[in-house]
Amino acid sequence: MSTEPLDSCDLLCLDLPHAEHVRDTLPTLGDIEPLADAARAFGDPTRLTVALALGTGGQMCGCDIAWIVGQSTKLVSHHLRKLKAANIVASSRTGKLVMYSLTDRGAHLLAVLTEPLTQKSAPASTSDATAGVGYV
Q1: Are 73 and 66 in contact (CB under 8 A)?
Q2: Which pTM value belongs to this model?
Q3: CB 3.0 to 4.6 Å from 88: which of 56, 67, 83, 102, for a disulfide?
């Protein structure tokens, strides 16, 4: 029995016309970086919890979010800056308070990411679960 990995070919086999076509259709690295930033932003459990809290509670100040997620205000503020840099969260100042909310993009990405959670808790339906879901 072979112990070689099953995830690579045993010989070089390149369908050059097909590979070139696929390569030509890929977005540039500059176009991919913001998508990777958004994916990384949701890659931390605290940031994901902060985004979920904003998705549920709407616009809130950082103090409320910190209490909701059970973390320090300083830590939550750090994570909110990361989410804001990835265009997932927006902020606005109201007097001495800084209020945070999900952007439309953040809400959409969060909905796609948490779809398995909502499918578990929702009764089965006859509609297509992927209807209306697009790429951002």
Answers
A1: yes
A2: 0.72
A3: 83
